[in-house]
Amino acid sequence: MIMFGFMGIKEGPVLSEMTVIQISIYGDGGHGSEPEGLKVSIWKAMQLYNTISEHVASLKAEGRKLECVWPVLHAGERFNVIGEKAYI
Fold first, then answer.
1. pLDDT digits (tens, 9 = 90+) for 3-31
2. HSE-up (13 A, CA, CB side) for residue 43
3. Is residue 45 situated within a structural domain?
């Protein structure tokens, strides 16, 4: 079992097929002209995206064989509106 907020990594082959994982991040919604003071989900999603990508790159630099592809980072449905939910 992996505790909330942690990512588990196991050495050696784990899966031989593609696995889809969707991570949802919730924050405050609001108007794009006033993001100050909001817990903006897209900023947190970008931080998580970068943290995981940097970790994967460091493992590859150590010679570990793994792939991690992030094809989608999505937040909001309307222009100039900060959505409450973002997902990777």
1. 777 777 777 766 656 677 888 888 887 77
2. 11
3. yes
- DSSP letter at 80? T
Q: Rounded to whole angstroms, how far apart are CA atoms 81 and 76?
A: 7
CA 25 to each of CA 10, 35, 50, 61, 79: distance values in angstroms, whole numbers, following the listed order: 25, 17, 14, 29, 19
What is the C-alpha to C-alpha distance for residues 36 and 85, in angstroms, rounded to an integer? 17
Report the distance separating Cα 87 and Cα 70, nearest Å. Answer: 11
Question: How much is the pTM?
Answer: 0.63
33 located within any domain: yes
84 residue type, one letter: E
